[in-house]
Design goal:
This protein is mainly beta and about 210 residues long. It folds into 2 domains: about 90 residues, Pectate Lyase C-like; about 80 residues, Pectate Lyase C-like (3 Solenoid), CATH 2.160.20.80. The protein contains 2 helices and 11 strands; from the N terminus they run E-E-E-E-E-E-E-E-E-E-E-H-H. The two termini are about 35 Å apart.
């Protein structure tokens, strides 16, 4: 059964209008209509990234807070160990990228797609969302997933080793993802799973709820 909800609106980008950015990032970030392909390892700053495509860029160890992101596509890039907090994201797509240890605190997210990424040993906290937020074909081993996960879609993801701590999860769609080995499932009240998933997870849920199995 396919996931519920609508697909996120993609970033509105025209590659012909993007100017290559070859300068260093400073602590006041102001990027508009740029193509990023360089290394920005360990940069710390705050600001806005709008109408930008990053391909093969290295953002590992960056520290951004707050950060406003709109119409941004990040492809085949490295965000390992990055810490982005106070992020407002609209029409953001991250594909085929390394997100190991990435810490993301989203104050507001709308139309976000993260696909084909390894997001292990990191953390996600969503305060408020609107529109469609989809994680597709991602791994989350050792990652904590917290906050308001209402309406979030996990499509064909491997959640083995993930730890949920949802404040809300109404219509969070987990039907096509692997949940074996995930923790904190009792916080996902209102989420959507299949009958087969419910049967497979019965022992785990009983243990988390404190039942004694006889």
């Amino acid at each position: 059964m396919p996931p519920t909800g609508t697909a996120p609106r993609p970033p509105q980008l025209d590659d012909d209008l993007l100017e290559p950015f070859d300068g260093p990032l400073d602590d006041e970030i102001d990027l508009y209509r740029n193509l990023l392909t360089g290394s920005y390892v360990g940069i710390a700053g705050r600001g806005e990234i709008a109408t930008v495509r990053a391909e093969g860029a290295d953002f590992s160890g960056t520290r951004f807070e707050p950060l406003d992101v709109s119409d941004v596509r990040i492809e085949r890039s490295d965000l390992a160990g990055a810490r982005w907090e106070g992020v407002s994201a609209r029409r953001l797509a991250i594909t085929d990228s390394r997100l190991v240890g990435w810490r993301l605190i989203g104050s507001f997210v709308e139309d976000v797609l993260i696909s084909g990424c390894r997001w292990d040993d990191g953390s996600l906290f969503l305060r408020r969302g609107k529109g469609s937020v989809v994680f597709r074909d991602c791994t989350f081993s050792g990652t904590t997933l917290r906050g308001d996960l209402s309406g979030v879609v996990f499509d064909d993801c491997d959640l083995n080793g993930a730890e949920f701590g949802a404040d809300a999860a109404r219509k969070c769609d987990l039907r096509t993802s692997r949940l074996a080995g995930a923790r904190g499932l009792q916080t996902l009240r209102g989420a959507v799973i299949t009958t087969d998933q419910a049967i497979a997870l019965a022992d785990v849920l009983a243990t988390e709820l404190g039942f004694t199995l006889g």
